[in-house]
Amino acid sequence: MVNFVGAGPGAPDLITLRGKKLLSEADVIIYAGSLVNKELLNLKKESCKVYNSAYMTLEAVTDIMADAENNGLMTVRLHTGDPSVYGAIREQMDILDEKNIQYSVCPGVSSFCAAAAALNIEYTLPAVSQTVIITRVEGRTPVPSGEDLSLLASHRATMVLFLSTGLIRELTEKLYSGGISPNTPAAIVYKASWNDERKIICTVKELYDAAKKNGIENTAIIIIGDVLNCGYERSCLYNPSFTTMFRKGENAENE
Ligand code: SAH
Protein backbone atom coordinates (compact mmCIF):
# COMPACT_ATOMS: atom_id res chain seq x y z
CA MET A 1 0.00 0.00 0.00
CA VAL A 2 1.20 3.51 -0.86
CA ASN A 3 -0.07 6.52 1.06
CA PHE A 4 0.35 9.93 -0.52
CA VAL A 5 0.52 12.29 2.45
CA GLY A 6 0.30 16.08 2.53
CA ALA A 7 3.10 17.29 4.81
CA GLY A 8 1.55 20.73 5.23
CA PRO A 9 3.29 24.02 4.45
CA GLY A 10 6.34 23.62 6.67
CA ALA A 11 5.66 23.91 10.40
CA PRO A 12 5.83 20.29 11.54
CA ASP A 13 2.68 20.60 13.66
CA LEU A 14 0.65 21.54 10.58
CA ILE A 15 0.53 17.96 9.31
CA THR A 16 -2.81 16.20 9.91
CA LEU A 17 -3.20 13.62 12.70
CA ARG A 18 -3.74 10.98 10.02
CA GLY A 19 -0.61 12.01 8.17
CA LYS A 20 1.40 11.87 11.39
CA LYS A 21 0.14 8.36 12.13
CA LEU A 22 0.97 7.16 8.63
CA LEU A 23 4.50 8.58 8.90
CA SER A 24 5.04 6.73 12.17
CA GLU A 25 3.86 3.46 10.61
CA ALA A 26 5.70 3.71 7.26
CA ASP A 27 8.36 1.19 6.25
CA VAL A 28 9.51 3.47 3.43
CA ILE A 29 9.23 7.27 3.17
CA ILE A 30 9.88 9.11 -0.09
CA TYR A 31 9.75 12.83 0.68
CA ALA A 32 9.68 15.80 -1.68
CA GLY A 33 13.08 17.39 -1.14
CA SER A 34 13.69 20.82 0.31
CA LEU A 35 10.07 21.88 0.74
CA VAL A 36 9.22 19.20 3.30
CA ASN A 37 10.34 20.01 6.83
CA LYS A 38 12.90 17.32 7.77
CA GLU A 39 11.66 17.46 11.38
CA LEU A 40 8.71 15.37 10.19
CA LEU A 41 11.12 12.52 9.50
CA ASN A 42 11.71 12.26 13.28
CA LEU A 43 8.30 10.58 13.41
CA LYS A 44 9.52 7.54 11.47
CA LYS A 45 10.22 4.19 13.05
CA GLU A 46 13.85 3.14 13.30
CA SER A 47 13.73 0.54 10.54
CA CYS A 48 12.11 2.93 8.04
CA LYS A 49 14.03 3.65 4.84
CA VAL A 50 14.01 7.27 3.68
CA TYR A 51 14.48 8.64 0.15
CA ASN A 52 14.64 12.25 -1.05
CA SER A 53 12.76 12.47 -4.35
CA ALA A 54 14.60 15.66 -5.36
CA TYR A 55 17.35 13.36 -6.63
CA MET A 56 15.01 10.86 -8.28
CA THR A 57 12.99 10.43 -11.46
CA LEU A 58 9.34 9.36 -11.57
CA GLU A 59 10.50 5.87 -12.56
CA ALA A 60 12.93 5.65 -9.65
CA VAL A 61 10.19 6.73 -7.23
CA THR A 62 7.65 4.22 -8.50
CA ASP A 63 10.27 1.43 -8.64
CA ILE A 64 10.91 1.93 -4.93
CA MET A 65 7.18 1.87 -4.26
CA ALA A 66 6.83 -1.36 -6.27
CA ASP A 67 9.78 -2.93 -4.47
CA ALA A 68 8.28 -2.08 -1.09
CA GLU A 69 4.93 -3.46 -2.21
CA ASN A 70 6.53 -6.76 -3.28
CA ASN A 71 7.97 -7.06 0.21
CA GLY A 72 4.64 -6.32 1.88
CA LEU A 73 5.83 -2.91 3.10
CA MET A 74 3.91 0.35 3.45
CA THR A 75 5.23 3.45 1.67
CA VAL A 76 4.47 7.06 2.51
CA ARG A 77 5.01 9.46 -0.38
CA LEU A 78 5.33 12.76 1.47
CA HIS A 79 4.43 15.83 -0.57
CA THR A 80 4.55 19.47 0.50
CA GLY A 81 1.33 21.25 1.37
CA ASP A 82 -1.53 19.32 -0.17
CA PRO A 83 -0.60 16.68 -2.74
CA SER A 84 -3.33 17.78 -5.17
CA VAL A 85 -1.75 21.19 -5.81
CA TYR A 86 1.28 20.98 -8.15
CA GLY A 87 2.13 17.66 -6.53
CA ALA A 88 2.70 15.61 -9.71
CA ILE A 89 0.73 12.77 -8.11
CA ARG A 90 -1.47 11.81 -11.09
CA GLU A 91 1.50 10.35 -12.98
CA GLN A 92 2.53 8.33 -9.93
CA MET A 93 -1.02 7.04 -9.46
CA ASP A 94 -1.23 5.99 -13.10
CA ILE A 95 1.93 3.90 -12.79
CA LEU A 96 0.67 2.39 -9.53
CA ASP A 97 -2.61 1.52 -11.32
CA GLU A 98 -0.61 -0.20 -14.07
CA LYS A 99 1.29 -2.15 -11.44
CA ASN A 100 -1.89 -2.99 -9.54
CA ILE A 101 -0.64 -1.31 -6.38
CA GLN A 102 -3.26 0.20 -4.08
CA TYR A 103 -2.90 3.74 -2.84
CA SER A 104 -4.70 6.35 -0.83
CA VAL A 105 -4.32 10.11 -0.36
CA CYS A 106 -4.16 11.93 2.97
CA PRO A 107 -4.74 15.66 2.35
CA GLY A 108 -2.60 18.40 3.83
CA VAL A 109 -2.68 22.13 4.55
CA SER A 110 -1.63 23.81 1.32
CA SER A 111 0.87 26.66 1.45
CA PHE A 112 -1.72 29.03 0.00
CA CYS A 113 -3.78 28.53 3.17
CA ALA A 114 -0.70 29.08 5.33
CA ALA A 115 0.04 32.26 3.35
CA ALA A 116 -3.45 33.62 4.08
CA ALA A 117 -2.97 32.74 7.75
CA ALA A 118 0.38 34.55 7.81
CA LEU A 119 -1.27 37.70 6.45
CA ASN A 120 -4.50 37.42 8.47
CA ILE A 121 -6.51 37.73 5.29
CA GLU A 122 -9.64 36.14 3.86
CA TYR A 123 -9.44 35.28 0.16
CA THR A 124 -13.19 35.52 -0.32
CA LEU A 125 -14.53 38.83 0.94
CA PRO A 126 -18.21 39.60 0.21
CA ALA A 127 -18.58 42.12 -2.63
CA VAL A 128 -14.83 42.08 -3.30
CA SER A 129 -14.04 38.59 -4.52
CA GLN A 130 -15.87 35.30 -4.15
CA THR A 131 -13.40 33.39 -6.29
CA VAL A 132 -9.80 32.29 -5.79
CA ILE A 133 -7.74 31.56 -8.87
CA ILE A 134 -4.82 29.27 -8.11
CA THR A 135 -2.31 29.43 -10.91
CA ARG A 136 1.30 29.91 -11.93
CA VAL A 137 3.16 31.90 -14.55
CA GLU A 138 4.46 29.95 -17.49
CA GLY A 139 8.13 29.15 -17.09
CA ARG A 140 9.86 25.97 -18.19
CA THR A 141 6.53 24.23 -17.53
CA PRO A 142 3.94 25.45 -20.05
CA VAL A 143 0.47 26.68 -19.04
CA PRO A 144 -2.49 25.97 -21.38
CA SER A 145 -3.17 29.04 -23.55
CA GLY A 146 -6.70 29.53 -22.20
CA GLU A 147 -5.19 29.98 -18.74
CA ASP A 148 -2.79 32.75 -19.66
CA LEU A 149 -2.43 35.05 -16.65
CA SER A 150 -3.66 38.05 -18.65
CA LEU A 151 -6.94 36.22 -19.33
CA LEU A 152 -7.34 35.09 -15.72
CA ALA A 153 -6.56 38.62 -14.52
CA SER A 154 -9.56 39.99 -16.38
CA HIS A 155 -11.86 38.38 -13.78
CA ARG A 156 -10.49 40.62 -10.99
CA ALA A 157 -10.82 37.64 -8.63
CA THR A 158 -8.27 36.97 -5.90
CA MET A 159 -5.25 35.34 -7.51
CA VAL A 160 -2.77 33.04 -5.78
CA LEU A 161 0.39 32.32 -7.70
CA PHE A 162 2.57 29.32 -6.99
CA LEU A 163 5.98 28.67 -8.54
CA SER A 164 6.26 32.19 -9.95
CA THR A 165 8.64 34.15 -7.70
CA GLY A 166 11.47 33.94 -10.23
CA LEU A 167 9.20 35.35 -12.95
CA ILE A 168 7.82 38.51 -11.39
CA ARG A 169 8.60 40.75 -14.39
CA GLU A 170 6.69 38.41 -16.71
CA LEU A 171 3.93 38.11 -14.12
CA THR A 172 3.39 41.87 -13.78
CA GLU A 173 3.44 42.38 -17.57
CA LYS A 174 0.73 39.74 -17.94
CA LEU A 175 -1.33 41.32 -15.17
CA TYR A 176 -1.10 44.72 -16.87
CA SER A 177 -2.15 43.28 -20.21
CA GLY A 178 -5.14 41.76 -18.40
CA GLY A 179 -6.09 45.28 -17.27
CA ILE A 180 -4.87 45.07 -13.66
CA SER A 181 -3.80 48.48 -12.37
CA PRO A 182 -0.22 48.91 -11.09
CA ASN A 183 -1.65 50.01 -7.73
CA THR A 184 -3.58 46.78 -7.15
CA PRO A 185 -2.68 45.30 -3.75
CA ALA A 186 -0.20 42.41 -3.86
CA ALA A 187 1.66 40.29 -1.31
CA ILE A 188 4.51 37.83 -1.16
CA VAL A 189 4.70 35.22 1.57
CA TYR A 190 8.02 33.39 1.74
CA LYS A 191 8.14 30.05 3.56
CA ALA A 192 4.73 30.44 5.18
CA SER A 193 4.64 28.81 8.64
CA TRP A 194 8.42 28.10 8.73
CA ASN A 195 10.59 29.81 11.37
CA ASP A 196 12.11 32.03 8.67
CA GLU A 197 8.74 33.03 7.20
CA ARG A 198 8.67 36.49 5.63
CA LYS A 199 5.72 38.48 4.30
CA ILE A 200 5.48 41.65 2.30
CA ILE A 201 2.37 43.61 1.39
CA CYS A 202 2.84 46.02 -1.50
CA THR A 203 1.28 46.78 -4.88
CA VAL A 204 1.64 45.01 -8.21
CA LYS A 205 4.10 47.64 -9.45
CA GLU A 206 6.28 47.19 -6.33
CA LEU A 207 6.35 43.37 -6.44
CA TYR A 208 9.59 42.94 -8.39
CA ASP A 209 11.66 45.32 -6.25
CA ALA A 210 10.11 43.98 -3.03
CA ALA A 211 11.11 40.41 -3.88
CA LYS A 212 14.58 41.48 -5.02
CA LYS A 213 15.23 43.67 -1.99
CA ASN A 214 14.24 40.84 0.34
CA GLY A 215 16.18 38.22 -1.63
CA ILE A 216 13.06 36.13 -2.24
CA GLU A 217 13.57 33.87 -5.24
CA ASN A 218 11.57 30.74 -4.47
CA THR A 219 9.33 29.00 -1.92
CA ALA A 220 6.90 31.88 -1.94
CA ILE A 221 3.26 32.50 -2.73
CA ILE A 222 2.26 35.67 -4.51
CA ILE A 223 -1.23 37.03 -3.89
CA ILE A 224 -2.95 39.64 -6.03
CA GLY A 225 -6.25 41.30 -5.28
CA ASP A 226 -8.29 43.83 -3.40
CA VAL A 227 -8.94 41.38 -0.55
CA LEU A 228 -5.48 42.38 0.69
CA ASN A 229 -6.51 45.92 1.35
CA CYS A 230 -9.99 47.29 0.89
CA GLY A 231 -13.46 47.69 2.32
CA TYR A 232 -16.00 44.91 2.05
CA GLU A 233 -19.59 44.08 2.95
CA ARG A 234 -20.24 42.05 6.08
CA SER A 235 -21.27 38.44 5.55
CA CYS A 236 -24.95 37.54 5.16
CA LEU A 237 -24.45 34.39 7.22
CA TYR A 238 -23.75 36.24 10.49
CA ASN A 239 -25.87 39.30 9.80
CA PRO A 240 -28.65 39.74 12.45
CA SER A 241 -31.21 40.51 9.71
CA PHE A 242 -30.44 37.39 7.65
CA THR A 243 -32.42 34.19 8.14
CA THR A 244 -30.46 30.95 7.78
CA MET A 245 -31.31 27.28 8.19
CA PHE A 246 -30.34 27.56 11.87
CA ARG A 247 -31.35 31.08 12.90
CA LYS A 248 -34.28 33.42 12.25
CA GLY A 249 -33.25 36.94 11.25
CA GLU A 250 -34.49 40.04 13.06
CA ASN A 251 -36.93 41.90 10.76
CA ALA A 252 -35.93 39.27 8.20
CA GLU A 253 -36.04 40.57 4.63
CA ASN A 254 -34.95 37.37 2.97
CA GLU A 255 -37.65 34.94 4.05
N1 SAH B 1 1.59 21.04 -2.95
C1 SAH B 1 2.19 22.27 -2.49
C2 SAH B 1 2.74 23.10 -3.63
C3 SAH B 1 3.96 22.47 -4.30
S1 SAH B 1 4.60 23.42 -5.61
C4 SAH B 1 1.16 23.04 -1.66
O1 SAH B 1 -0.01 22.63 -1.58
O2 SAH B 1 1.53 24.04 -1.06
C5 SAH B 1 5.89 24.30 -4.80
C6 SAH B 1 5.52 25.78 -4.65
O3 SAH B 1 4.61 25.89 -3.57
C7 SAH B 1 6.67 26.70 -4.30
O4 SAH B 1 7.38 27.12 -5.43
C8 SAH B 1 5.92 27.86 -3.68
O5 SAH B 1 5.29 28.66 -4.67
C9 SAH B 1 4.83 27.13 -2.91
N2 SAH B 1 5.18 26.84 -1.53
C10 SAH B 1 5.36 25.63 -0.95
N3 SAH B 1 5.55 25.75 0.37
C11 SAH B 1 5.47 27.07 0.65
C12 SAH B 1 5.51 27.85 1.84
N4 SAH B 1 5.68 27.28 3.04
N5 SAH B 1 5.35 29.19 1.75
C13 SAH B 1 5.15 29.79 0.56
N6 SAH B 1 5.08 29.11 -0.60
C14 SAH B 1 5.23 27.78 -0.56
Characterization of the model:
This protein has helices at residues 17-25, 58-70, 90-98, 111-119, 149-153, 168-177, 207-213; strands at 2-6, 28-31, 49-52, 75-79, 103-106, 132-136, 158-162, 185-190, 198-203, 220-224. Helix 2 crosses helix 3. The model has no long low-confidence stretch (mean pLDDT 95). A five-stranded parallel β-sheet has the order 3-2-4-1-5, sandwiched between helices. With 255 residues, it is α/β, with parallel strands linked by helices. The chain is globular, with a radius of gyration of 21 Å.
Structural class: alpha/beta
Regarding quaternary structure, what we see is single chain
Mean pLDDT: 95
Largest sheet: 5 strands, parallel
Brief write-up:
The protein has 255 residues and is α/β, with parallel strands linked by helices. The protein has helices at residues 17-25, 58-70, 90-98, 111-119, 149-153, 168-177, 207-213; strands spanning 2-6, 28-31, 49-52, 75-79, 103-106, 132-136, 158-162, 185-190, 198-203, 220-224.
